[in-house]
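Deliverable D4.2, example record:
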Amino acid sequence: MKIRRFLSSLAAFAVVAGFLLQQGDVSAASLTSQVQLLVKADLTDTSGLVEARAPLVMQRILTLASGDAANEASVVWSDSRTIAASGSETLDFAGGGLTDPFGAAVAPAKIRAIVVSAAAGNTNDVVLGNDVNHVPILSDATTTVTIQPGGIFVVTAPALAGVAVTAGTGDIIAVANSGAGSSVTYSIVVLGTAS
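Output generated by the structure prediction step:
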């Protein structure tokens, strides 16, 4: 009886093992992503008995398939981070120790999208830029973008060229706390390509 159970278990294991072997490399990653922007506004005015309305809806969706061509992305990195009062940090996207949720190193060759959101509870602003080796998402290395509490900064580059990440000269995203007295928290998402 024990031998029969053992053989049944061994046969079941062989079936499962055979199924897993047919599945190929289960570590091959695939990424599909969207960046969505929705602006809704409803302007109203009353004149006498008449109420005039001018509703506005603008929606843009950038859909990126899995890959390294135009309108594709194969690398994603995200985090929620805190910077001390008057502090700053540099995020190195060319071998700077950043990893994805599976522990793989993140070093995109091109950036497809960057979204930075400052926490609404911040007192100070979050400042991007002003690093000589900044990824060229801004007009030049010393340019900065100020993100007020609750504000969002978005840049997309879906074309084949994207925004190139160049080790040593264009691989840093610099983030700073605009002032003293309190820390700032921000969330960041970076989509890119492996080549």
